[in-house]
Structures
1.
Amino acid sequence: MKKVVSIITPAYHCEETIDRTYRSIRSQTFENWEWVVVEDHSPDDSYERIKAIAEKDERVVVLRTPVNSGAAVARNVGIAAANGRYIAFLDADDFWDSKKLEKQIQFMEEKGAAFSFTNYRVCYNGGKCKPFLVRKDEIRYADLLKTVDIGCLTAMYDSEKLGKRYMPLDCPKREDHGAWLDITRDGTIAYRLPEILATYTIAGSSVSSNKFKMFSCQYRLYRRHENFGRLKSLFFTILVTINKILKSLKLVLKKEHDCEEYTQID
């Protein structure tokens, strides 16, 4: 039976986190979903752990890349296999609040939106969480050139309205930003559901925590994917970096919450 929502998860080296991610999906109050997990040849027992989950839940679809290919390729394999009208994304170390799907689908139906996102919280090394709040209710292409506000774990698009939209492969580590630029370039608006409905985890060795690598990847997004000249690419990269630093400073000032209160998922 065709599902309403397809949840796409690239899985790599996630044997310690994938169960929690699955529990957050299983606990959704909206139950008409499929979870398409694409295992990307992890060196640990991730594949076996995911297969064990699928054996107990027929809504879980497990695929595997022929060789380790990166998150963008893995997500695209999942999107190609998806059967749902709505396409949502959740990485294998992140998780959702239980009403995330229910509230976001209702929000999109009420607004007639083809593309939406929510606020989320950031959790550092499994320790303290802080809210990441986007202030704009509507985000357009011009906005996305200057800032990175749409968290991949909160994004959802309607494939009946937009068709299946894939992650570009010419901007590694920034493929989700590239995808949102592709979606909005033709005038599609990303609408914000102003609730915190997801938790994004940052490990010390992640790309998000490596500022130089982040700058380099962002520059390649503009240079290769948007085909901007060097100066224009550098300008927007610097602008995004400044905006990100300002948001990080605001995040530092926000009140901390213990992640434990968000990780107790049935």
Note: The longest strand covers residues 190-202.
2.
Amino acid sequence: MAGNISIVLKIIQKQVKPFVTPSVTLFSRKSNHYLVLVSCILSLRTKDKTTIEASKRLFNLADNPKKMVKLSQAKLEKIIYPVGFYRNKARVLKEISLRIMRDFTGRVPNNLDDLLSFKGVGRKTANLVLGLGFGIPAICVDTHVHRISNRLGWVRSKNPFDTELALEKIIPRRCWIESNTILVGFGQNICLPISPLCSNCHVRRLCKRVGVKICR
């Protein structure tokens, strides 16, 4: 199973290469843990294009927690608009930045428990920060990874947490970090939630199409 999954991931990675890089992956290339955390929070329920633009505006003014806490709530909301739930996210970013300054000497913690202690940070965000921010092997399961893993027949799970645990057993550890970037790009452009583009999918012969009723 592990060998087959590695092959599928490589095929998908090659197919999604021309598409837009997921926003969090894009900012992870700057080797700044704080930027990864902030862009993760901004990306929740928001399209990548909107997240990237909002993140760039924000990071031009505040690329560290010290600068972030100095921004007023109103100004922060204006900068990140129109990301989804921008008012709540502005509040969360200020609270997290204050805690980083107060409890973690101004640095983003590099362990799951501490990251999950932040209000507004769930397993998806925490695992992305660990993987893309710190290079610590972690499997981030969002709606795309959950859907595609079940659709391909890799797992049979009803929620992201169970999917994460199942994938840890079958995906080679060396592939954990990059799996989210690969599958998110695939889910956004080919393996769509409704009417996936199966005719244009490079792994269609290796896919069980679990739950797929109509495909194009």
Note: The chain has two domains: 2-19+139-206, 31-134.
3.
Amino acid sequence: MRVCTLASGSSGNSLFIQTNNTKILVDAGISLRQIKSRLENLGVEISDIDAVIVTHEHTDHALSIPKIENTTYVASATLNIWKDKVRNLKEFDTGNSFTVRDVLINPFSVPHDALDPVGFTFETDHKKLSIVTDIGTSTSLVKERLRGSNILVIEFNHDEEILKYSSYPWELKQRIMSRLGHLSNRQAATLLADLLHNELFHVVLAHLSEINNSPDVALRAAYSVIKKVGVENINLSLAPRKKIGEVLTI
């Protein structure tokens, strides 16, 4: 399995997954031109993509969905949003697994202020990738679904102190900090502590706020919990906002 973020953050999100037989795009929150360009940097054409899978309907995750002609999977609760806009549309039921060629995909509910926001796990050849961003708080279900991951893409959105003193309006700060908002570094690190195990090889810190966080602060929070738990051989990386991230292979 090969994994690479194409964009991450409030300005747009997209992630590429490749297995032996399948190429998948998770979200398309940047322009189609940018998606094509960044895929080309990976040696992939947009026409090669077998499925585009959408976490939720917010623009920073779904901007280019109406323009993409590839088979696109959306949650049943959001079907009415897309049915007159997307040519090759399929639906999935949150909580029920489905397959795209050689990949088993498990969508699960996450707390966020969207119609039916989901995280995903992707399994093939006894390897597991998990993605959870745009989540206001961790739940027992989230922890259960993420356990046993070999690669974990997890939201480290904001630092609570930086957000507290930022220029954001108070109403927006409340939304970010709410249980339907976004994970802080502290909350994400607490969740990460529950997921650490000897076969978790790589953790990608995603959806960092450009204003209310910093890469160094987020990385320190993650490194601190890894050191405390004492699990070794885990690599950390940051998902860049406006370019492809590190290409991970398991």
Note: Residues 2-244 form a domain with the Metallo-beta-lactamase; Chain A fold (CATH 3.60.15.10).
